[in-house]
User: Fold this.
Amino acid sequence: MLLKIGTRGSKLALTQSQWVKERIESGRPGVIVELVRITTTGDKIQRPSLSEVGGKGLFIKEIEEALLRKKVDLGVHSMKDVPAGLPEGLEISTFPQREDPRDAFVSEKFRSIEELPHGSSVGTSSLRRASQLLHLRPDLRVLPIRGNVDTRLRKLGSGQFDALILASAGLRRLGLSHRITQMLSTDLSLPAIGQGVLGLEVRKSDHVVRDLIGFLNHGETELTVRAERAFLKELEGGCQVPLAGYGKLDGDTLELEGMVAELDGSVLIRDKLFGPKEKPEVLGVDLAKKILASGGDKILQGIYGNPR
Assistant:
């Protein structure tokens, strides 16, 4: 059996898809997996901010189109790039075990965020990271940066930035964990929805592929990401608003922490809820409603320009 995986062509995307390929081939003898590189709109556009060009769904749109046209059988995504709503006929069926979800501080001159001098420049492509950093250190200059991990590290090395904030999961998967200067606790920087998680997207009607890859699913990861994505969907969140959500499982209890902030970090609303693991989506919706009632609705209205 030949299984075609649709993947972006970046080094990180190929590394992640190669990891999935190797596990499928080792776990399902007789299955041959082919990686099909697909250039997405997000790869083509190099403007500094994704919020200017339509959001994170731009990194998966063409892969989803290939799935729907049956050009590929499976899409491998970083879950933090997947919008709350999926095209009709597609689903994320499998969630391999989560890598470390925390953000990483990377610098060649300073050992921590706390050591950064007044006015230091920090590069990040994420409004979520920028708002939390500015909330902690409003004296810093947080500047947009695009490009793959290697490109960003080169810009750091050339002196364009004093530091970067990157996902530790991506650095680890690329064998660059030695570049991490400081791991940021989730208290300091709450992760993006689904950060550190791979999502395997299939056609709902393709039960053969769904069953074939099901052994890669990690139950705890699936539950926490389902709660996080329900939180995202209830807030109608996208790349235009700084928001974060991170779920953890403790026995039969699911904990979900969420955050919504002003773009400049001047206001940051953060809260958490606990609930039974059997109802992750209910927990996500309840937390979103709680944060909206605490002032999150005013933040979203100010950014989106329409009342909820």
